[in-house]
Structures are given as C-alpha cells and as structure tokens.
Amino acid sequence: FFRPIEKINAVLEVYPKGVAGFRSYLELLATEPDIVDRPEAVELPPLTHEIRYENVSFHYGGGRPVLQNIDLTIHAGETVAFVGPSGAGKTTICSLLPRFYEPTGGRITIDGTDVRDVTLASLRRQIGIVQQDVFLFAGTLRDNVAYGRLGAGEADIVDAVKRARLDHVVNALPNGLDTVIGERGVKLSGGQKQRLAIARIFLKDPPILILDEATSALDTETEREIQLSLAALSEGRTTLMIAHRLATIRDADRIVVVTPEGIAEEGRHADLVAARGIYRRLHDTQFAGVS
Ligand code: ATP
C-alpha cells in the first residue's frame, strides 16, 4: 500500500485537475515514459548557488513552440515572480525544473549540473510545489499532513501544522489531528486545504519552491492568512512563483515578464513600473484600482 504513495511523495504534494497547471506524477508516468533516470544519473546535492535556464526551448508534442531560447538565472534564496498574459508559458517554465517535461532545446542546470543527469528522486526531493488544487486522501488530518514526508515524527508534524497556520483549524476539531477528512469525514474549506498543502511542504522542507498562486477568489481574511503562510514557507528557500496577486509581485526579488515571444522584461516592481514597458501596461490594466 505504501510503496506507490512513497513514490508519489518524492514528487508532488498537490495534484492538478485538467490540462492547465502541473500534471500528476502518475499521469506523467503513463504518458511520458521517456523521462526516467539515465543509467549514470547521480544524486543532486542541495542547491547552493543557482538554477540556470540556458537557451531553453520547448513545445508540447508536435505543437507550436511555447518557449524559445529562454535564458534565466535564479540565485539561491531568490524569489522570482513570473507574470504575463495567459498562455505565455509561465507554468511551462516551472514544469521543466522538476522534469515533468524536458526542454526540446537548451538545458536547465542546478549548480552547474544538468537536471537530466541527476536522479529524478533526488531532483524532486528538492522541490516543493503548492498549487490551487490540493490532493487529499480519505484518512486523518495527521496522515494527510505526513504525506509531505512519510515517516515524519509527531513533533515535526505538529510544527509543520503550526507554521502553516493550520493549528487553529486542528485545535477547533474535537479529534484534532485524528480527525478523519474526506468524503466520509470533515470537509475542509479551500483555504484550509491550501494550508494543509503548505504544512506538507514545511514537513518536506525542500530548498526550492514552486508556487502556483490561486486565481480563484478566497475571502480577504483567508487570503491574507495564506499569504502569510506562503511568505513564511518561502523564507530561506529559492522560490519560483506563478504570480497573480499584486502584493506577492511587489515583494518579489525579481519579476520576470513572460510573453509568447519570450522573456520581455526582468526587474523589481518599482523599476519595471518606471520603465513604462509591458509590465507597466499589464500592471495598469490588471490592477487598476488595487493598491
Ligand atoms: P496561465 O496564466 O493561463 O496559467 P501560462 O503563462 O502559465 O498561462 P502555460 O500554461 O505554460 O501558460 O501554457 C503555454 C502554452 O502551452 C499555452 O498555449 C497552452 O495552451 C499550452 N499548453 C500548456 N500545457 C499543455 C499541454 N499539456 N499540452 C499541450 N499544450 C499545452
């Protein structure tokens, strides 16, 4: 029973629905049999310097090019927000890092090592992914959090729950962490599920994060709580964020503006606003009236 879960656990905390967003590991196993360890694959040591996209191009199947000649360096500890029109390739850029897909041209390196030369397990252990759709299974809250790192001790689970600001939820339930969730148990709200996903990643403790910010509306209070949890989660980690919210974008160390033609602009919020280019236009239309 546990073996397949362990396998999935090395990869993803959160599963997607539909084509948009990240694909599930099992789905990929079924459809992308080419992405396997090379015979001479090595263990990837924890990121210390930088992630580099070198002249990366990509297209899905026989489709049109989605990415062309992308060059990008992300320094360890940096938070990079990807913004740009829908369909520009923000999610695709992030999907290439855990090797859900492989570049059709160029390469991606972590501290100089091509990600195709390392074991998938050691690569994906370093990456935590938070996205809108959270995969939950029928079981206790504890089991669902522990899915972030199977075999984690009680103290670590409790700590992850606290850091993700899920403790208020747990404490309000009569059975606490023993509460059964899912169809036959307690139903969690969207915001609670998000915090559970964040708790899993605190437990996994990867050096690299990929955050796919929710576009769907949560109430302001919940959204603020989640923002705080995510900010705590990304502290000390290298973060790639598919960003939709102004607050997150403003606070990023760097904003990368992705368009169907490629990376159009890079910089901090204030600099990009001052540059009066694409970001400024996106910003003025998307966030009109938002401060
Ligand atoms: P959004 O802001 O809407 O999430 P995005 O900038 O993240 O968009 P991607 O999801 O990376 O864009 O999509 C880039 C292009 O690749 C789009 O034209 C999309 O339709 C296409 N695409 C994405 N995933 C797949 C897939 N699995 N198979 C085929 N085409 C895909």
TrEMBL record:
Subcellular localization: Cell membrane
Similarity comment: family membership: Belongs to the ABC transporter superfamily.
Keyword ATP-binding in record: yes
Keyword terms of this UniProt record: ATP-binding, Membrane, Nucleotide-binding, Transmembrane, Transmembrane helix, Transport
Entry keyword Transmembrane: yes
Superkingdom assignment: Bacteria
Protein name: ABC transporter ATP-binding protein
Predominant subcellular localization, coarse grouping: membrane
All residue ranges annotated as the ABC transporter domain in the record: 51-285
Recorded GO CC terms: plasma membrane
Gene Ontology molecular function: ABC-type oligopeptide transporter activity; ATP binding; ATP hydrolysis activity
Membrane topology, record value: Multi-pass membrane protein
